[in-house]
UniProtKB/TrEMBL annotation:
Record field: transmembrane: 12-31
Keywords: Membrane, Transmembrane, Transmembrane helix
Organism: Candidatus Colimorpha enterica
Name of the protein this chain belongs to: DUF4330 domain-containing protein
Length: 156
């Protein structure tokens, strides 16, 4: 007797190892890890138009050309142009007719951001993860100002 034991692999050991490898591949495919790691896609500058309703004076002042807006910790985009008009509120008068009234101290803002987006078959991605399309809303921050913007078009 030599005192050393020889390690023997059985069919069950081989099957267990194959199952572990299959699980790792399944997780990688589920979360598109391989595509994100080896993707050759590059971000490109894309114009994104937006609208903000009933913004305060402070928010209106933040929308100056060249201002950089953040989405969480990521850069959303740089403001290319913005136009603000006094906010309008509609209400029904006693006759049942819709009447327009200026909402003093509030503004409706429209404009264009230049954003770094990744183009995919299904649309555009912000920071490679967040889908951005017309009709989506984002809460953005510029300095101390936070506001919600409605995306009206992407790539226009």
């Amino acid at each position: 007797m030599s005192g050393t034991k020889r390690v023997k692999f059985s069919v069950a050991d081989f099957v267990i190892i194959l199952m572990i490898i299959a699980c790792i591949i399944g997780v990688a495919m589920r979360y598109d890890i391989a595509e994100k790691l080896f993707s050759k896609t590059k971000a490109e500058d894309v114009r994104v138009t937006f609208a903000v309703s009933s913004a305060t004076d402070n928010t209106n002042n933040a929308f100056s050309t060249g201002a950089v807006f953040m989405y969480g910790s990521e850069t959303f985009g740089k403001l290319e142009e913005a136009d603000s008009t006094p906010a309008v509120q509609y209400y029904e008068n006693s006759s049942g007719v819709l009447t327009e009234k200026k909402n003093d101290g509030f503004y409706d803002i429209t404009g264009t951001f230049v954003c770094r987006l990744v183009s995919t078959d299904s649309g555009y991605l912000l920071d490679g993860r967040t889908y951005i399309a017309a009709g989506s809303t984002f809460t953005l921050q510029c300095g101390a100002v936070r506001t919600t913007v409605l995306i009206t078009s992407v790539g226009a």
